[in-house]
Amino acid sequence: MQSLPDLEWKNRVILVFGSSADPRLDQQIELLESKKDEFAYRDIVIIKVADGGALSIYGNASGLNAAALRKEAKLADDRFQVLLVGKDGGVKFRSNRVVKECPCARPNKASAYSQPRISCPSLDRSAYGHVRRSTIS
Length: 137
Hints:
single chain; Glutaredoxin
């Protein structure tokens, strides 16, 4: 593996960027390692990117290219940052602070409040997808 596109549609990726001199980097890795049991069923890979190197902390990722990961995350320096990249390759969460809750464990607002669909007999869809009132006889 060289970069994030190789993990698309297989894994969610938590990237932890920073400098080894920054205590937040080690603090974030320790917090994530304490929650490893939550990652298996979510297909999570955790990657630490620091000081020009990249290391897989959890999950299967090898041959990591730190420069490519920084470029894909749009980070030019060793700033501390935590990213969650979804299976589709999009950035779902970004923080420059230590994240105490796993960003992948947060409920999706849309799914947390979604209700089952209830069909209404007085409504139907036209051939073009527009909702129209049915005539009730």
